[in-house]
Amino acid sequence: MNAYQSWGRYPRVEQDARPLNWRHQPLPLAGLEGAVLAYGQGRSYGDACLNAGGALLPTRRLDHFLAFDPQTGLLRAEAGVSLAEVLAFCQPRGFFLPVTPGTRYVTLGGAVANDVHGKNHHRQGTFGRHVTRLELLRSDGSRTLCSPEENPGLFAATIGGLGLTGLITWLELRLLPVVNPGLAVENLRFGGLDEFFALSADSDAGYDYTVAWVDCLAKGEDRGRGVFMRGNHLETPPQKQPKPPRRGLMIPCQLPGWLLNPFSLKAFNALYYHWPRREAVSQVLDPLGFFYPLDAVDNWNLIYGPGGLVQFQCVLPLDDAATVLAEMLTLTARSGMASFLAVLKVFGELPSPGLLSFPRAGATLALDFPIRGRKTWDLMAELTRLVRQAGGSMYPAKDACMSPEDFAAFYPNHHELETWRDPRFSSSFWRRVTGQEGQ
Amino acid sequence: MQKILILGATSAIAQATARLFAAQGAAFCLVGRSRERLEIVAQDLIARGAAEAFCLTADLGDCDGHQALIQKADDQLGGLDLALIAHGTLGDQAAGQADFAIALKELQTNFISAASLLTHLANLLEPRGKGALAAISSVAGDRGRQSNYIYGAAKGGLSIFMQGLRNRLAPAGVRVLTIKPGFVDTPMTAAFDKGLLWVGPEVIAACIHRGVVKGREVVYAPWFWRYVMLIIRAVPERFFKRLKL
Question: Is the ipTM, as predicted for this complex, more than 0.90?
C-alpha cells in the first residue's frame, strides 16, 4: 500500500492500512503482528507518520463532532476532523483556531500528537495548551479520559507524543473568540538578522501574529534579509460572511527535479523580497491567505521532484541565535539548494504542555530542501551539528534523518515517553531515533 | 426548519449530506441498523446546528416493517419535507453469479427495499401535495456491464422506478430526485484502488444538497458522469458486448 506517504515523500515504506470508521469500535488489531500507528492527513514531513512493516490506522473517517458550546467556544470532536473543517464550522460562529500551523490540512489528532505551533506562539503557546480533555483508546481495549487534572501523566505524554500512547478518539479544544477572523497585516522588509530580532522584539507585545520569511539564498551584505509579517484580527465585525475558499491551483503530477535550480530559486526569492514594493505595506487579509499561503497549491510537495523533500526545523536559545542563524544561512546559501520558504520566528516563553513538545523559548528556523542524495544529507548533518552545539532542538514532525544521539541530546526525557508508550503503537520515526530500527 | 428523514443514515454519503442540512438548522429522523453508529451521527448533526435528531433502528431489508417505520418517522418529525434513501450494499459480482441467493439479496437491498420505501413515502406525501423524495442510485444502473450487472440492475431498476414515480407525483407537486454517483471513496468501496475519477463523499453530498435546493430531477455526481455515461450508453451493443468493462 503506497497511498500512505509522508508530506516529504521520503522515506518510502511498505505498510498495511486499516482505516477506522467509528470511534466506539475496538482497535482493528486482530491478525496483526506488527505495531500500529494512527495516520491523519500525512502532513508530517518525514517518518513520524509512517510505520514500516506495521499497519497504519487512517483516522479521516473519525470526523464527527460531539458537542459545541457557542458560549464558551469549547468544541469536542473526533481526532480525524481536520483544522480546515473546524475553521469552516467556527468562523461563521465568531471563533477561530487558538493555534494553527502553516497548513489547515492536518487533523486534530495530528495537531495534538505533534503539539503544533503557529505564528501566535508568543501569545498562545502551542496547540496542546488549548486542549482541555481527550479520550485515549489503548491496545488493551481501555478508554482513558485525560486532561490536566485526570491522568495528567498520560495527558502530557500524549501531547506531542507522536501518536505513540494509543489512539486519540476525540478531544476537546477551546476555540478563540474573534470579532472578525480577517486580519490587519503589515509586511516590513528587513535587511539582516539583527533587524529581524529588533522588529520581533518590538512587535511581540502589540501583535498576535508575527513571522518572517528569509531569503536563504542571499549572500554577503544581503544575508539574512527578508520580510517580517505581523498582524492582528480585525476588531470590527465583518460586513459579510467570508466566502468559502476557492479551489486553488493543483500540481497534477510530480515535476522534474531540475525545475528547482539556483536560478529559479534566486529569482523567486528576490521577487518575494521585493514584493512589498515599499519598505512597509499594510493590508487587510483573509485568514486563509495569511495563515495558509501554501494551501492554495494542492500537492505543492510534488514541486520538489522525484527524490522528495526534507525539512529542517530547529529552535535555538535566543542568546546567540543571531550568530548561529547567520552561520546556517551561509551554509544554506553556499549549498545553493535552499527552497522557496524559509521561515523564521521567535517563540515566546509560554511552556509547552507535552512531555516531548518541540516549541520552547528561542528562535525557530524552518527550511526545506529537495532530496538530492549525499549533498542534501551532508547539509542536514552540518545544520544539525550547529543546533546541537548551540543547545537547541529539532522538530520530530519535520524530521527524516536525525540520529539516535541527536535525538537523545534534543529530548533527554524521551525515556519517559517510552514508559507511557502503548506496547502495540510505534512509528518508523520512533524506531529510528531510539535505535530500535530493524527490530 | 426542514424535516428530513434519512434511511441508511450512517452511510458516508448520507452523513456528509446531512451535515449540509444540519448547518441550516434542519431536524432529522435517522434510520439505520446500528444504534451506536446512529447516536454518533445524531450527536454530530446536533453539534453542527441541527434542531433535532431522532434515531430509529431498523433493518431496511425487511419490507414488512416499512409502513410502520415511515409512519413513526413522520410522527416524530411532525411532517416530512425530504426523505433520502441512502442505504445500499456493493456485493461481490462473482459470488452473485455463482449463487443466485447472493444476487437476490443484492437486488433485495438495493432495489426492492428502496421501491417499497418509496411507495410508502409517495402514498404519504401525495395527498399532502408537498415534499421531496431522493434516493441514491448509481451510474452503474445506466448500462449493464459484466463486472457488476447485479448491482447495476438493482440501481437501474431503482432509476426507472423513480422516473415513473416522478411522473406520477408531478401533478401533486411532490418532487423526486434520482442521484447517480460515480466512483466514491467510502467504506463501501474500501477494497478498490482509487484513480483520478474518484471523489470523496462530501463532493456527492454537495451535489445532492444543490439538487434538492434547486429542485432537480436527475443529478449525476460529480456532473461529468452525465457525459461519461452519455458516451457509454451510445456504444452499440454489438461492440459493447465485446468490451471488458
Answer: yes
